[in-house]
């Protein structure tokens, strides 16, 4: 059990089955998903190295937001440490949660905690990888598990996690905590978070090359059999462009400094604040779906991180931004321009969301 992608083995173990799998062209994949002929988790899109101009935007965003991100991760680590006794087994949700999990492991170690970090698969409509969860529980106990992700957008994955872990506990008589720890909880659904602001988390701008060269996870009967972990592809061909270790190493320095700062604490978590976030998310979804004549919630991708992923691997109909000149959406504006995606400027975009993408309705062609 030593699959760590391009990370150091001490930083993370991916509880995933590495397979060879041919990618599906983006528009064909979108048609298959929307027609219901294939689930999104059964296919992978093409992953390429970003061009130099896009990487320039990434590094500019990284320099601008590194210290804030580091401070938020440190605050999150302090809160996890305060709330959890005994061994901590971080279960980051591959792959957006993986860099956050690596950093949290380092922070918790610095706080003197015994901590392990695994990255596991969860798939909307298909659930958490129970084989992976069994592995963690067998090694460390059910009460050790802490689920980790980068952010919440509209809460779909959080709802999936709560439902499936509840089923898991009922079937096994276990007591795994389904609550999610995230850096930014825009939807008001996480158990722990450092902030509720929609700011650019640097790792959200890239895919495999900032996530250990690991693809999005796959649940396909051709590759995953009984007793197998969910699958992934290891993108070794992108190794010359990989910055996974560099990213976490450069965030670690200010993160460790923030651990010693008594003022570095997560945002207050109170029922009224969470209810306000959930109401804001509901308002955003309702207004966006009405304005763009969308009936399928899955076609609306709110927040900077989800909009980025949609522009990188889906077929967007439109990018919506509150302020096109804001530095945290510069990379989105470039992606939209390069892909010919219309940009809709909406100054009334419901807070906290700065951006969103709407997925195009595809014909059967």
Compact overview of the structure:
The protein is α/β, with parallel strands linked by helices. The protein has helices spanning 26-35, 52-83, 98-110, 130-140, 156-172, 244-259, 271-291, 304-313, 330-339, and strands spanning 13-14, 17-18, 88-93, 115-120, 122-123, 127-128, 145-152, 180-185, 192-195, 231-232, 300-302, 316-321, 343-345, 355-359.
> Roughly what percent helix?
25-40%
The amount of beta strand, in percent, is 15-25%
* Envelope shape: globular
Largest sheet: 6 strands, parallel
Strands side by side in the biggest sheet: 1-4-3-7-8-9
- Counting helices, strands and paired strands, the structural category is alpha/beta
How would you describe this structure to a colleague?
With 365 residues, this protein is of the alpha/beta class. 38% of the residues lie in helices and 16% in strands. The strands form 4 sheets. It has a 6-stranded parallel sheet with strand order 1-4-3-7-8-9, sandwiched between helices. The radius of gyration is 19 Å and the shape is globular. It starts with 12 loop residues before the first strand and ends in a 6-residue tail after the last strand.
Task: Offer a few descriptive terms.
365 residues; alpha/beta; 9 helices; 14 strands; globular
What is the strand and helix layout of this fold?
Elements (H helix, E strand, L loop, with lengths): L12 E2 L2 E2 L7 H10 L16 H32 L4 E6 L4 H13 L4 E6 L1 E2 L3 E2 L1 H11 L4 E8 L3 H17 L7 E6 L6 E4 L35 E2 L11 H16 L11 H21 L8 E3 L1 H10 L2 E6 L8 H10 L3 E3 L9 E5 L6
Parallel strand pairs: 1-4, 2-10, 3-4, 3-7, 7-8, 8-9, 12-13
Antiparallel strand pairs: 5-6, 11-14, 12-14
Helix pairs in contact: 2-3, 2-6, 3-6, 8-9
């Amino acid at each position: 059990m030593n699959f760590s992608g391009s990370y150091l083995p001490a930083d993370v173990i991916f509880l995933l089955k590495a397979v060879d799998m041919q990618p599906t062209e983006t528009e064909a994949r979108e048609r298959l998903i929307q027609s219901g002929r294939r689930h999104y988790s059964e296919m992978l899109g093409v992953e390429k190295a970003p061009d130099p101009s896009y990487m320039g935007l990434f590094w500019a965003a990284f320099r601008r937001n590194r210290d804030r991100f580091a401070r938020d991760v440190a605050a999150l680590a302090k809160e996890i440490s305060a709330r959890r006794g005994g061994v901590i087994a971080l279960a980051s949700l591959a792959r957006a949660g993986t860099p956050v999990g690596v950093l949290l492991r380092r922070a918790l170690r610095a706080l003197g905690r015994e901590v392990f970090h695994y990255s596991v698969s969860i798939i909307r409509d298909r659930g958490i990888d129970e084989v992976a969860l069994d592995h963690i529980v067998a090694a460390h106990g059910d009460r050790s598990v802490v689920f980790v992700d980068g952010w919440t957008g509209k809460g779909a994955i959080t709802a999936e996690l709560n439902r499936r872990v509840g089923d898991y506990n009922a079937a096994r008589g276990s007591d795994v905590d389904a609550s999610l720890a995230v850096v930014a909880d825009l939807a008001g659904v996480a158990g722990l978070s450092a902030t509720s602001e929609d700011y650019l988390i640097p790792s959200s701008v890239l895919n495999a090359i900032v996530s250990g060269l690991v693809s999005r996870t796959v649940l396909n009967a051709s590759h995953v059999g009984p007793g197998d972990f969910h699958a992934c592809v290891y993108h070794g061909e992108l190794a010359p462009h990989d910055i996974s270790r560099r990213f976490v190493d450069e965030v670690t320095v200010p993160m460790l400094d923030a651990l010693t700062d008594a003022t570095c604490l997560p945002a207050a978590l109170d029922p009224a604040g969470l209810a306000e976030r959930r109401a804001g998310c509901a308002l955003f979804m309702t207004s966006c779906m009405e304005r763009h004549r969308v009936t399928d919630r899955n076609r609306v991708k709110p927040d900077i991180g989800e909009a980025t992923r949609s522009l990188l691997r889906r077929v967007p109909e439109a990018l919506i931004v509150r302020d096109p000149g804001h530095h945290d959406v510069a990379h989105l504006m470039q992606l939209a321009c390069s892909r010919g995606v219309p940009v809709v400027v909406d100054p009334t975009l419901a807070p906290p969301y700065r951006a969103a993408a709407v997925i195009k309705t595809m014909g059967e062609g």
